[in-house]
Amino acid sequence: xxxxxxxxxxxxxxxxxxxxxxxxxxxxxxxxxxxxxxxxxxxxxxxxxxxxxxxxxxxxxxxxxxxxxxxxxxxxxxxxxxxxxxxxxxxxxxxxxxxxxxxxxxxxxxxxxxxxxxxxxxxxxxxxxxxxxxxxxxxxxxxxxxxxxxxxxxxxxxxxxxxxxxxxxxxxxxxxxxxxxxxxxxxxxxxxxxxxxxxxxxxxxxxxxxxxxxxxxxxxxxxxxxxxxxxxxxxxxxxxxxxxxxxxxxxxxxxxxxxxxxxxxxxxxxxxxxxxxxxxxxxxxxxxxxxxxxxxxxxxxxxxxxxxxxxxxxxxxxxxxxxxxxxxxx
Amino acid sequence: xxxxxxxxxxxxxxxxxxxxxxxxxxxxxxxxxxxxxxxxxxxxxxxxxxxxxxxxxxxxxxxxxxxxxxxxxxxxxxxxxxxxxxxxxxxxxxxxxxxxxxxxxxxxxxxxxx
Lengths: 330, 114
Ligand SMILES: [Fe+2]
Ligand SMILES: [Fe+2]
Ligand SMILES: [Fe+2]
What we know:
The complex is a heterodimer.
Chain A: H1 21-31, H2 44-63, H3 65-69, H4 78-103, H5 109-117, H6 135-155, H7 161-189, H8 193-212, H9 224-229, H10 237-255, E1 265-267, E2 272-274, H11 280-290, H12 294-307, H13 309-329
Chain B: E1 27-33, E2 41-47, H1 51-62, E3 70-75, H2 87-91
Antiparallel strand pairs in B: 1-2, 1-3
Bound molecules: fe (ii) ion (3 copies).
One fe (ii) ion binds near residues 91 and 145 of chain A.
């Protein structure tokens, strides 16, 4: 998912009896399915964790535009180009909704941006992988957006009102993303031998990084319990990963492509697919900023910020001048 | 700028949210009226240098799929909002005025639809 390894408070989850009245009322409201709104009282840890989580999610939407933006000018047809452009524009919107939700917690957009650019805040590991061929546009829409949807659909019910509302908007747009990806995969998988190979290669490269999107295995996610009690995390990492594999395996079969996992097998008894874990050392390494494209991504974001500076300042100066002129005329 | 709903907070990893710097565009709240005659509805917010560009940005972000035919934008700082602490005194007075609801009145079935 787009927010991995979000630290919440180090202390264990408190029981209702251990809480002061304020916190108890807050937790009871969440337990009853109520929403927390920006001006409501909330524990410090809840606010901090949400800022990290929503901020990281927003950064992922923005950085996530880069691997796909890479192919806009080289899309095979004008129609594919228009579709990809629309998809990448949607992702900019997702980033915007999420930054706005984070801002209601009292942090500024510019500060969040600066924390991304300085490397203090993270974005999803998945966007540190390169997109080498056109088939990767198919694999990203199908698998990456598919994995994101798994996580984002339950987050529509998250306890923080602005976050939940942003998720509702985002989810409406995501199914277009996944379907356009699958549509590319269908074309490629049913195309020439070279196209089919390209599709298989894209699946080979994106399969395990997609599984990593859900974060480390439950036994290694130390911070889940508190986030789940606060309902800012709705399912465990392993739950969602299993759901994703169960959904995706038949789709790969439909495409006539092979998921690169010799242990992938339907388990009648569990009613789920068995599958191999991704290489978690690679995951932690990528998260540390050592992914194949980590340096590129940060350079691209920093460049955009630096080179956009004169536009931001210019438009503000222009607005100021217009306002002064209008005042003078009145 | 923060939303009209936000509180101040300065204990995150990010720096406290103070006065916007000269390079930070103000925040605008966006309201959109759909095709079917309902009132404008709050859909979200965005940053823009002035009202004109706020409307353009709102068009680009919030009406990508025929969501509406009219856009209002208002600077977030210009919105006054009720506070949650006042919830009781603000809304409770209406609780005991049950006669404001049509169901308060028993109209015999013989009268027909009303
Ligand atoms: Fe997205
Ligand atoms: Fe995405
Ligand atoms: Fe998407």
